[in-house]
Design brief:
Bound molecules: zinc ion
Largest sheet: 7 strands, mixed
Distance between the termini: 10 Å
Number of helices: 13
Shape: globular
Length: about 400
């Protein structure tokens, strides 16, 4: 089969690779019908993320049709259309039982690569380095899905593949970030970042009853999408002297009740990277990214909530005193997709929320390298590229 593979920094190729087969009795093999890329994939392509190996298949957000199932799979059948969260859960460990799926204890066979850095290991994830399990990714014609009963969610007939695709990652991540804010009527929620995850966080916050949602970015198309689809007001941070002062002015001097950082989302998984070389480049990245997070901490009202969807490795000048003195509650996680996907699919069927506006551009797998180049440059107003293998 064809797959978009990593061959080193800025070197993506469409290779012919063996079609995945069932390895364990609880596996399914899914024929991918749509796959998308997020900022974290860019960091892999750019060579910032260690523990990739030449020939690894990229991609962790996808929807598809079940091609075959192992003999121990009970609730999933060949021919079903399914969406699959990017983090792989086993459904049986204490974390999965607690609905903390990205913390699954059983799906990362390379736990020892994370433990020296994190003290523990996360769940495995498709197409995202060997430290995160070394699973082959979704920019391919077929993908192996372990623990199929826990990870395959049937897509209702009312929804097309594009609507369901974002339930794989961007949507539940953004929704979880808003959920962390315990939004009450009258609340103001500010979201740094109007990419896929940021827009989903804004949209979800609006749906959860926030009176005022404010999206912060610099790309006009993304700010447009925030206003048009996500129910947000916007701040172009290149056009104001101080985002914090602007937010104060928009909230009667109090500051937002909750602040969501969806800028570093693209960096998810980089927690392990600092122990490796390229630390200097990484530091450049993280110093940049820290700016949004620091702004969010300072802008947040006293006693408010800071919800971090952007994942950081190390950060210098992290003003923890701001959190302490203002009594700010911090909530954060990699997405616990399995907890949210059924509700999100219901919302889409009911017409309450449709994430398909994230899909601004479509590509064949063969155009992968060009798609990634455009995505990196955010060319032509791209929010998310969608691959149709
Ligand atoms: Zn992603
Ligand atoms: Zn588990």
């Amino acid at each position: 089969m064809r797959a978009l593979c990593w061959h080193g920094t800025d070197d993506l190729r469409v290779d012919s690779v063996p079609r995945p087969s069932l390895v364990n009795p609880k596996d399914a093999v899914v024929r991918v019908t749509a796959s998308t890329a997020c900022g974290s994939d860019l960091h892999i392509v750019d060579g910032y993320v260690p523990t990739m190996r030449e020939g690894d298949v990229l991609g962790h957000e996808f929807v598809g049709e079940v091609a075959e199932t192992g003999e121990a799979v009970e609730g999933v059948e060949a021919g079903q259309r399914v969406v699959v969260p990017s983090f792989i859960g086993c459904g049986a460990c204490a974390y999965c039982q607690d609905d903390l799926w990205s913390l699954c204890d059983n799906t990362n066979p390379n736990a020892e690569m994370q433990e020296p850095i994190l003290g523990d290991s996360t769940a495995g994830i498709y197409g995202y380095t060997h430290a995160f399990g070394g699973y082959a990714g979704s920019h391919a014609e077929y993908i192996r899905v372990p623990h199929a009963d826990e990870n395959c969610f049937e897509v209702p007939d009312e929804l097309d593949d594009t609507q369901a695709l974002f339930a794989s990652d961007a949507w539940p991540t953004g929704y979880m970030g808003a959920d962390f804010c315990d939004i009450e009527d009258g609340d103001t929620v500010a979201v740094w970042g109007c990419g896929g995850v940021g827009l989903m966080a804004q949209h979800s916050a609006s749906l959860m009853g926030a009176e005022q949602v404010i999206g912060i970015d610099r790309f006009p198309e993304r700010l447009n999408a925030a206003r048009e689809h996500a129910g947000a007001e916007t701040i172009d941070y290149t056009e104001v002297d101080s985002v914090v002062k602007r937010l104060d002015a928009m909230t009667g001097g109090r500051g937002p009740d909750a602040c969501i950082d969806a800028v570093g989302m693209e960096a998810h998984g980089t927690g392990v990277t600092h122990a490796y070389d390229r630390a200097k480049q990484q530091f450049g990245l993280h110093t940049d990214r820290g700016e949004a997070l620091r702004q969010a901490m300072v802008a947040c009202r006293k006693g408010g909530t800071l919800s971090i969807l952007g994942v950081y490795g190390l950060m210098d000048k992290f003003p923890i005193g701001v959190l302490i003195n203002k009594g700010i509650t911090v909530r954060t996680a990699q997405q616990h997709g399995q907890r949210y996907v059924p509700d999100l699919l219901d919302l889409a069927v009911e017409g309450e929320m449709d994430p398909s506006y994230l899909a601004t551009h479509e590509f064949a797998l063969e155009d992968g390298p060009e798609a990634y180049r455009m995505f990196r440059e955010k060319e032509d107003g791209m929010i998310r590229p969608v691959f149709r293998p």
